[in-house]
Amino acid sequence: MLEEDRLRDDEYEKQYYGFSSTELYEDFKEQTSQAVKMALTEIETALEAAKYDKVLREQKIAEFYAAYMESAKIPLHKFKNEARKIFAIPKNVVLEEDQHKIEHFSDEDIIKLKTEVTELEKELLRNLPKSIEVDENHKKVMDFYEDHVQYYFSNENETETPHLKGIESDFIKTTDDYFK
């Protein structure tokens, strides 16, 4: 998604919900990071009380934090995507300030569209028998093909079988009938 699109979506979400999915993600990420930092600070305090080397202790805490941030990338990314899906404003929802952007249709436009839909329905009904016939011919061709392939493989050791004589012409005739 382009940055401009994301900004527009965030603005729409913020107007609709009072927050955006990006804000939710950033806040969640920050709160999670703070909770991990607090836990690591408590661990550091416990290690300090145990008289561990300060430089080594700080180095290990920094490594733990970096390891957490690395391991959290995928779940945080999934969270961000899910939040965006959940809070996405459908394209058909128009907020009050954007009402002027809506394309309005006259009664004539609506009648014209209804007429067009009716004509398309009639055309579909006219073509439906042809479609059913094509489906039936397709089934015949596939059945014919399967029968002959199964027969061929069950008799593949025979050098020439009387049943396979003329199979090519039968198949061509059947497929020609199908594509008429």
Please give a structural write-up.
The chain is mainly alpha-helical and 180 residues long. The protein folds into 2 domains: 3-101, no CATH class; 107-178, no CATH class. 77% of the residues lie in helices and 0% in strands. It is built from 5 helices and no strands. It has helices at 3-17, 21-49, 54-87, 107-154, 167-178. Helix 2 packs antiparallel against helix 3 and helix 4 (107-154) runs antiparallel to helix 5. The chain is flat and about 90 Å long. The two termini are 46 Å apart.
What count of domains describes the coordinates? 2
> Based on DSSP secondary structure assignment, what is the total number of beta strands?
0
Helix percentage range: over 70%
Tertiary shape: flat
Helical region count?
A: 5
Radius of gyration, taken over Cα atoms and rounded to an integer in Å: 34 Å
Largest sheet descriptor: none
Oligomer: single chain
The low-confidence parts are none
- Percentage of residues in strands: under 5%
Beginning-to-end CA distance, first to last residue: 46 Å
Overall residue-averaged pLDDT value: 81
> Pairing-aware structural class of the strands and helices?
mainly alpha
Task: Write the H/E string, N to C.
Answer: HHHHH
